[in-house]
């Protein structure tokens, strides 16, 4: 048995299948942990969602910002926000089943025997791990509930707060947690989150800190995340950033978690889209 974390697929289904062939993935034997953003931007969101969904219990997929976007669009909560790449999802004969599947995706995953925690983008500097899992569990409950989903996502849009809101409305706190877990990148020296997406680490102000720089991990804990394509494959301090920009002509990455050296496997990808905000 092998356990692999897989970076942001973004609808690049042939590349995902090539990567799984490279690692000789066997659904009856191995497990896959997707960091989220399996859909949008790339050419085959519908095929990728069906492929990953049909892996059943052999795969766990985290909710990324693009899954959140798809849920909003398919639930009628994203006027003028719904991207054309996702239209195929809404028009599919199994659209209702896909939406249910997306709403059930977890925000975080813990692989306790391996000391591995996963989240799509990252965690707020002030949160303990218990805080983060409590937010993740509450968000999952709300996303599965029709009234909760509407209350949560109807108001989910930028600008997001730069610091955790001290708001009596639980939905405001949950929206912030959802934004953090699916979109966080940088913090300023004053502890404010930067929601803009600079082109790359080299072009950001030198005093900005990536979120993981604010959260030293006790050894031998490991955190795996995705989302930050501009940073590319980023490894250090127990953190593994796996978005190696497949949809931008980079690579799709698998990280074997149950091996002491945590070997990486990659396939090159054609450039489907230009980098852009978001
Ligand atoms: Mn993302």
The value of Rg in angstroms is 17 Å
Largest sheet, spatial ordering of strands: 3-2-1-12-13
Sheet having the most strands: 5 strands, mixed
User: Which fold name is given in CATH as the topology?
Assistant: Purple Acid Phosphatase, chain A, domain 2
The level of helicity is 25-40%
State the order of secondary-structure elements, H for helix, E for strand. Answer: EHEHEHHHEEHHHEEEEEEEE
Helix tally equals: 8
Tell me the number of strands: 13
Topology:
Layout: E1 3-6, H1 13-22, E2 31-34, H2 45-53, E3 59-61, H3 65-74, H4 87-91, H5 95-103, E4 108-111, E5 116-119, H6 129-144, H7 146-153, H8 170-183, E6 186-187, E7 193-194, E8 209-210, E9 222-225, E10 234-236, E11 239-241, E12 251-256, E13 264-268
Helix pairs in contact: 3-5, 6-7
Bound molecules: manganese (II) ion.
Manganese (II) ion binds at residues 37, 64-66, 120, 227.
């Amino acid at each position: 048995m092998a356990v692999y974390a897989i970076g942001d697929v973004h609808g690049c289904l042939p590349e995902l299948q090539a990567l799984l062939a490279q690692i000789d993935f066997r659904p009856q034997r191995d497990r896959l942990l997707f960091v989220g953003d399996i859909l949008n931007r790339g050419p085959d969101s519908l095929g990728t969602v069906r492929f990953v969904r049909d892996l059943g219990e052999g795969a766990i997929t985290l909710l990324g910002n693009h899954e959140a976007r798809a849920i909003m669009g398919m639930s009628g909560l994203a006027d003028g926000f719904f991207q054309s790449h996702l239209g195929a999802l809404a028009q599919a004969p199994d659209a209702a089943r896909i939406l249910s599947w997306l709403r059930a995706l977890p925000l975080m995953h813990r692989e306790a025997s391996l000391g591995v925690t996963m989240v799509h983008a990252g965690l707020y500097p002030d949160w303990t791990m218990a805080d983060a899992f409590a937010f993740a569990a509450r968000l999952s409950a709300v996303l599965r509930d029709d009234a909760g989903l509407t209350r949560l996502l109807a108001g989910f849009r930028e600008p997001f707060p730069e610091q955790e809101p001290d708001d009596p409305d639980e939905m405001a706190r949950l929206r912030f947690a959802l934004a953090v877990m699916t979109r966080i990148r940088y913090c300023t020296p004053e502890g404010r989150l930067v929601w803009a997406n600079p082109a790359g680490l080299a072009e950001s102000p030198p005093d900005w800190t990536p979120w993981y720089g604010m959260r030293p991990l006790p050894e031998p804990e490991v955190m795996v995340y995705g989302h930050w394509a501009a940073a590319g494959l980023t490894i250090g301090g127990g953190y593994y950033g796996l978005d190696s920009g497949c949809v931008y002509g980079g690579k799709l990455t698998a990280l074997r978690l149950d091996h002491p050296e945590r070997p990486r496997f990659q396939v090159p990808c054609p450039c489907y889209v230009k980098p852009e905000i978001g």
